[in-house]
Design brief:
Strand order of the largest sheet: 25-24-31-32-33-34-43-40-39-36-37
Number of helices: 21
Strand content: 25-35%
Protein name: Alpha-mannosidase
Number of strands: 52
GO molecular function: carbohydrate binding; mannosyl-oligosaccharide 1,3-1,6-alpha-mannosidase activity; metal ion binding
Structural class: alpha+beta
Shape: globular
Bound molecules: zinc ion
Main location: Golgi
Distance between the termini: 34 Å
Radius of gyration: 31 Å
Largest sheet: 11 strands, mixed
InterPro entries: Gal_mutarotase_sf_dom, Glyco_hydro/deAcase_b/a-brl, Glyco_hydro_38_C, Glyco_hydro_38_cen, Glyco_hydro_38_cen_sf, Glyco_hydro_38_N, Glyco_hydro_38_N_sf, Glyco_hydro_57/38_cen_sf
GO biological process, one term: N-glycan processing
Length: 1149
């Protein structure tokens, strides 16, 4: 309370200072006018006028800042309630360090200091020798022994789980697999399971299951429901796909889970309990978090480094409670079963010896299509051989069982696309049934075996554990980077097909933006028209179907052969077309929704599919091309520009459009206030500017989730500030064609010194010769060497040596070689009032570093972008490396799915390729005084091979297959963009060690920067011939959300009564971020956060109103019971725990 008052006074103080500076500026301005009395000379008058105009603009901007301060002051006063109870968001614009009590996001790290129990995977990595000795029959393991009486008291209970792994696209497209295999597999499943209730099966991919469901009749659907109810068929995980866990962003991971779970609930009325992820190439705790949050109780994982599997097998920790690294409570625990052996096929699931297990895959009986590579074929089970066969199998079961703490055994029975023919069901079930019967008839063997599902297995496991009073060990950490054998590390797929990894995130951002705007539009329409939606003319159902299709296309792409870049070329094209198609459809929904929301007179709304009133300012012509800005023709008549801010924060953004005029001004359509602009050349070639098109940049301040309307108009010649250029190339002075711009060349004396750019937050120095960054200095005084280098990796060259491919990274022994080019790069330095940048044109890439001359967090980071083209190369991978003087030792941090940070240790005992990790959105290096954070807009592989270094793989072109079944190299490279923001921050205090590993988070500033990078503003424009309708801004929120609370999504739910139509219910997802409290940006980010876990959603989203709010599980399957006392209270206080995602089922008024 006292702190609050002091704080209010502080804001008051700032306000007064700002006001005084305003008056001071007025004074200065008057003096300027006195000094330059109006000249008779026209030019002089023009100049003065323009200067005056700029001053006025600056004053206006100052005024607007002051207005914001006043609003914040008012809010903070309002929220300091007299009884000391804080009703909701607690406003703070000060630094986190002022607080006496740690705020929730960073309190977390404090709490964790005591939570050091259990296994920490980083410690396991420190411990393991990674020596890969030959283990005998179990090559990567050890000899397993048993006495034989271990099961006398507690008989061995074996569950054989039939499964068929169906990739939604890999060697064939999703549709081709469905036609050729999947539909037959599901048809057979239905017949076979109905014939014999001892037969069971599990199924994971809802994308396939729902497609099959659409094609079967009601009678078959009823049979499916009966089988599910009887426990014969279990849908496991229930995601749309079995997603990749390295490259997928948590938005998409969750979204594909929601899509699958909602489908299951609507069509089958069931909820999944068990996860099944047998093929993703490494496993992430983010996935475990989402499954737990969705209500699942257990999960199975498979592709884990063979050395880790062996270690866990020895320790009997293959079953564990997987806990989030940041969680000090058991809240996030989920029971996880790790399969012990090499693969999920039958040879590697019955026990340690594949030559024996293969003989129990009866699909490989002589005369069938598949055989055993160990050259001992299966035998049909007969009366003569049943004893010998049963004992042989039991020996494998018993050995496998010794790796687990309970006598319950999970034995998957299946492979990729298995059970396509009913004969396969017959051979497997009749032969196994004979073995089961034999066990049954011989109680002295103490074994009971039968077909089962995961529910059967985990049910038995939990019963045995609890009756024995045993609990499973706790484990923290992740399972990257995966190796299946030798030094074959799967770190190549972190980068393979980077063009599509980028497109994935473009679609993801577009889907989120459209979901939110669609939900807001539906609420507005209801408010305007009542519940009768048809009155609006807004095609809600049609739009909802486009949204649904986009959700499913994004979901499909999270499959572990899609976003990973490990599918065949035609399949990649199929994915690309789906992403592109949905991107186009989402634009229509966005344009149409914005149109309705902005119209002052709603009766003027009409939906015309052939010509939208609003159009995107950029065009994409095909899935494999880059967006092109449309040229907006300007005249004296203003054109409408509409900008949507899809983030929950007020943002100051630089908007770039392409116009046909060298001079233009942009005004806010309501206030008439003109915005600062900068006109730059559009470079048709590195040294040739377009004579007809120009880039107009302006600074827009856009409130959270707002649609803002601007007017852009042709201006008198010479009125808009233009970018000036300095061009240099070593050896020759390049001719530059840019008549409308001031272009200079570096003088001989300037060539030796670095080129420098600065804004009010930092200064950077780059090499004049290459344009590449060398050093960075913050205005606080912190200086860091930060050199950008480009390098090549090649692959192994010796014959019979495995080489890099889509999955594997197997670099040549020489390591990375510096990028060199026979031709010196053309370096172009641009300087202007809004941004300045340095662009270098190398043969294989164009690299740009841009600095924004802006207050607020946009000016605090450096934008780094590349356009890469390595199509002329063979077996090469291009890497961008930052070399700094940060003393991070062998430790750095990279994110997991954009959800959390994970500490990484570069280990000399591991080969180079093992020290590469997935980076979905961020990585940082730090020492006691500073932190360098790199935020990315796409996923890629990252490493810190030496102290101070951070390197990212930009693209890879590989001519050969790497023997993981794909059967081709990766040679469909394209012109590929990548975008980053680089942040240098002051830091105090070291990392807090938890169980030997430090739990670290991004700083608030890094979170905000990442949000802005991943969710750029969306620019729309009206056609040149459209009449000027009256449009007004759409401002749904009164203020920004707290800066540690991310609005993950507002997703309109399907109507249960009328599937395919939007319901009035919206799934609202809020992710409260954990953040680092040791970074000390100066000045601190201006934002608010809640000092408590408890927040009031009505306050956060005011003036939006919720008719009902009900907390739910992450995929909306389990609604929390409404608390009757709370129900009466309209202002619902709800808890948002740091690091956690909270889901609510809401109805907006
Ligand atoms: Zn697969």
């Amino acid at each position: 309370m006292k702190r609050g008052r002091v704080f209010s006074l502080l804001i008051g103080g700032i306000f007064c200072v700002a006001l005084m500076s305003l008056y001071r500026m007025l004074e200065v301005m008057q003096k300027v006018e006195h000094r330059h009395p109006l000249d008779t000379h026209d030019q002089q008058a023009d100049q003065d006028l323009s200067r005056l105009q700029q001053k006025i603009e600056r004053l206006e901007s100052l005024l607007s800042d002051n207005n914001r301060l006043v609003a914040m002051l008012r809010d903070s006063l309002l929220l300091q309630k007299p009884d000391g109870r804080v009703g909701g968001a607690n406003i703070s614009s000060g630094s986190a360090h002022n607080s006496a009590k740690p705020i929730p996001g960073c309190r977390l790290a404090e709490e964790l200091k005591d939570g050091t129990d259990g296994v920490q995977l980083l410690d396991v990595y420190d411990l393991l020798p990674f020596d890969n000795p030959d283990g005998g029959a179990w090559k990567q393991g050890f000899e397993i022994s048993y006495r034989g009486d271990e099961w006398d008291q507690q008989p061995l209970e074996v569950f054989l789980v039939p499964h068929s792994h169906n990739d939604p696209g890999w060697l064939k497209t999703f549709d081709d697999y469905y036609q050729d295999q999947t539909r037959h597999i599901l048809d057979n499943m239905l017949t076979q399971l109905s014939l014999d209730d001892r037969k069971k099966m599990i199924w994971a991919e809802i994308s396939y299951f729902s497609k099959w469901w659409n094609g079967i009749d009601e009678q078959k659907r009823a049979m499916v429901k009966r089988l599910v109810k009887a426990g014969q068929l279990e849908l496991v995980t229930g995601g749309w796909v079995m997603p990749d866990e390295a490259n997928s962003h948590y938005f998409a991971l969750l979204d594909q889970l929601i899509e699958g779970h909602q489908w299951m609930q609507t069509h089958l009325g069931v909820k999944p309990s068990n996860g099944w992820a047998i093929d993703p190439f490494g496993h992430s705790p983010s996935m475990a978090y989402l499954l737990k949050g969705a209500g699942l109780r257990n999960m199975v994982v498979q592709r884990v480094h063979y050395a880790v599997k062996k270690h866990f097998a020895r320790q009997q920790t293959l079953e564990f409670l997987w806990r989030q690294s940041w969680d000090s409570s058991p809240r996030s625990d989920i029971t996880c079963h790790m399969m012990p052996f090499y693969s999920y096929d039958v040879p590697h699931t019955c026990g340690p010896n594949p030559a024996i297990c293969c003989q129990f895959d009866f699909h490989r009986l002589a005369g069938r299509r598949v055989y055993c590579p160990w050259k001992i074929p299966p035998q049909p089970i007969t009366e003569q051989n049943v004893q010998e066969r049963a004992l042989l199998l039991l020996d494998q079961y018993r050995q496998k069982s010794r790796l687990f703490r309970s006598p319950v055994l999970l034995v998957p029975l299946g492979d990729d696309f298995r059970y396509t023919e009913s004969s396969e069901w017959e051979v497997q079930s009749t032969n196994y049934q004979k073995l089961f019967d034999y066990f049954e008839q011989h109680p002295e063997l103490h074994v009971k075996a039968r077909f089962g599902t995961l529910s059967d297995y985990f049910g038995a496991l939990q019963r045995r554990l609890s009756s024995a009073g045993m609990s499973l060990p706790t484990l923290r950490g992740d399972f990257f980077t995966y190796a299946d054998r030798d030094d074959h590390y799967w770190s190549g797929y972190f980068t393979s097909r980077p063009f599509y990894k980028r497109l994935d995130r473009v679609l993801e951002a577009s889907l989120r933006a459209t979901e939110i705007l669609f939900s807001l539009t539906m609420a507005e329409i209801r408010r305007f028209h009542g519940d009768g939606l048809t009155a609006a003319g807004y095609p809600a159902r049609e739009h909802f179907q486009k949204l649904t299709e986009a959700r499913r296309n994004l979901a499909l792409f999270q499959h572990h052969d899609a976003v990973t870049g490990t599918a065949r070329d035609p399949v990649v094209i199929d994915y690309g077309n789906r992403l592109f198609h949905s991107l186009m459809n989402l634009r229509q929904v966005l344009q149409s929704s914005a149109h309705w929301l902005l119209l002052f007179d709603k009766s003027q709304y009409h939906h015309d599919q052939s010509e939208y009133f609003l159009q995107m300012d950029e065009e994409i012509s095909a899935h494999d091309t880059l967006p092109q800005k449309k040229t907006i023709t300007l005249s004296d008549k203003p054109r409408f520009l509409v900008i949507f801010n899809p983030t929950e924060q007020l943002r100051t953004s630089v908007i770039n459009i392409v116009v046909d005029s060298l001079d233009a001004f942009v005004t806010n359509s309501e206030t008439g206030r003109s915005l600062p602009v900068q006109v730059s050349a559009v470079w048709a070639e590195p040294n040739r500017a377009s004579k007809t098109n120009f880039q107009l940049s302006f600074v827009a301040e856009i409130p959270p989730l707002a649609l803002m309307v601007y007017h852009v108009t042709k201006a008198p010649a010479g009125s808009a500030p233009r970018t000036s250029y300095t061009v240099h190339r070593r050896g020759d002075s390049p001719t530059v064609h840019a008549d409308n711009f001031q272009v200079s060349h570096l003088k001989a004396s300037e060539v030796e010194a670095p080129v420098s750019l600065r804004n009010s937050h930092m200064e950077i120095w780059s090499s004049a010769e290459t344009g590449l960054l060398q050093k960075l200095r913050l205005m606080s005084g912190l200086v860091r060497q930060l050199r950008v280098e480009f390098l090549w990796y090649g692959t192994r060259t010796r014959v019979n040596q495995d080489k890099s491919g889509a999955y594997l990274f197997l670099p040549g022994e020489e390591g990375a070689q510096p990028y060199s080019s026979s031709e010196a790069p053309l370096v172009r330095v641009s300087r202007g009032p809004i941004f300045s940048d340095i662009t270098s044109y190398f043969r294989h890439f164009t690299h740009t570093v841009r600095l924004f001359h802006m207050e607020g967090h946009a000016g605090k980071s450096l934008e780094v972008s590349n356009l890469v083209d390595i199509r002329s190369e063979n077996n090469r991978e291009l890497v961008m490396r930052f070399v700094s003087d940060v003393a991070n030792g062998n430790c750095f941090y990279s994110d997991l799915n954009g959800f959390q940070m994970q500490q990484r240790r570069t280990l000399a005992k591991l080969p180079l390729q093992a020290n590469f990790y997935p980076m979905t959105s961020s990585a940082f290096l730090q020492d006691s005084t500073s932190r360098v954070t790199l935020l990315s807009a796409q996923s890629q592989g990252v490493a810190s091979l030496r102290p101070g270094e951070l390197e990212l793989v930009l693209d890879r072109r590989l001519q050969q297959d790497d023997n993981r079944g794909l059967g081709q190299g990766v040679t469909d490279n394209k012109l590929t963009p990548s975008v980053y923001h680089l942040l240098l921050e002051d830091r105090r205090g070291g990392a807090q060690e938890v169980g030997g590993a430090a739990v670290q988070h991004l700083s608030l500033l890094a979170h905000l920067t990442s949000l802005a990078l991943c969710h750029p503003p969306i620019t729309m424009v009206t056609p040149s011939n459209s009449q000027l309708l009256k449009l007004s801004h759409f401002l749904p929120l009164g203020s920004s959300l707290p800066c540690d609370v991310h609005l993950l999504n507002m997703r309109t739910l399907d109507d249960v009564q009328e599937p395919g139509s939007p319901s009035q219910q919206v799934a609202l997802f809020l992710h409260r971020k954990g953040f680092d409290c040791n970074s000390a940006p100066h000045p601190p980010p201006t934002c608010k956060w809640s000092a408590q876990d408890e927040v009031n959603l009505d306050d956060l989203f005011s003036p939006l109103r919720f008719r009902s709010i009900r907390r739910s599980s992450l995929t909306l399957l389990y609604d929390e019971e409404p608390n009757s006392a709370r129900q009466q209270q309209p202002h619902d206080i709800t808890r948002l725990r740091p690091m956690e995602i909270s889901a609510f089922r809401v109805q907006m008024d």
